Amino acid sequence: MKNVFVFEHPLIQHKISLLRDKNTSTKEFRELVSEVSMLMGYEVTRNIPLQEVEIETPVGVARTKVMYGKKLGIVPILRAGLGMVDGMLRLLPMAKVGHIGLYRDPETLQPVEYYCKLPVDAQERDIVVLDPMLATGGSASAAIKFIKEKGVTSIKLMCLIAAKAGIKRINADHPDVEIYCAAVDEELNDHAYIVPGLGDAGDRLFGTK
Ligand code: PRP
Ligand code: URA
Question: N or C terminus: fewer CB in 10 A for the chain?
Answer without folding.
Answer: C
